[in-house]
Amino acid sequence: DTAVSQTPKYLVTQMGNDKSIKCEQNLGHDTMYWYKQDSKKFLKIMFSYNNKELIINETVPNRFSPKSPDKAHLNLHINSLELGDSAVYFCASSQDLVIDYGYTFGSGTRLTVV
Amino acid sequence: DQQVKQNSPSLSVQEGRISILNCDYTNSMFDYFLWYKKYPAEGPTFLISISSIKDKNEDGRFTVFLNKSAKHLSLHIVPSQPGDSAVYFCAASRGRVNAGGTSYGKLTFGQGTILTVHP
Fold first, then answer.
1. Quick one: which of A14, A106, B25, B73 has the fewest CB in 10 Å?
2. How far apart are CA B78 and CA A36, in angstroms?
């Protein structure tokens, strides 16, 4: 039973389209995150939610909109996709706002914009 | 401006030997550091962490060393096993608690080092 699951695993779409990536965690964690792994392999935080409340919103184009319907879910919607959005997107969760034990990551969604 | 860097893209080690993975950081405000391991097609998995009040933390075969003056940390794996072959990421944070809207408790990752352990 996967702890943090993301769907879809792969997503190929055309420029200008709107797409969503879903994330669910069954760990009972309070905090969830979206990270983007860019072409240089750095993992960069995009958003963080704690108990459905947005707490981190990094410098991300406003075409990216996270939505947390409940604390077990954090979805990422991307409008007007651009070539530069191609990356691997990782969802993660942590028990709370303390990072001592790190995050539990999903397996990633590889987004390719053509 | 990458504040956490892993300058070795890859490392190859013989089974049973020591693997040493290095990480450098530039932000002197970082005071909490973590290592993650990632297998292909999986997300990163937390391995070990260290606070800046320590210079060493050990967990089984894994030991992390922190040199604050050099802004350098390293992960030692002894003995290395083929199952350790993966990408290793270091991460750093200012503080342990994510205070939201601030720089506290946000993990900044390096770009990873591919470790290959040969049988």
1. A14
2. 31
The answer for residues whose C-beta is within 8 angstroms of residue B60's C-beta and 6 or more apart is none
Q: Does domain B4-118 have CATH number 2.60.40.10?
A: yes
User: Thinking of the domain A4-113, which architecture would CATH place it in?
Assistant: Sandwich (2.60)
- Each residue of B69-90: pLDDT tens digit? 999 999 999 999 999 999 999 9
- Reduce the secondary structure of B41-108 to three states and give it as a string: CCCCEEEEEEECCCCEEEECCEEEEEECCCCEEEEEECCCCHHHCEEEEEEEEECCECCCCCCECCCE
Q: Considering only the beta carbons, identify the residue of B32, B97, B106 that sits closest to A45.
A: B106
Per-residue pLDDT of chain A (114 residues; tens, 9 = 90+): 679 999 999 999 999 999 999 999 999 999 999 999 988 888 998 998 888 888 877 878 899 999 999 999 999 999 999 999 999 999 999 887 777 777 899 999 999 999
Helix (H, G, I), strand (E, B) or coil at A83: helix
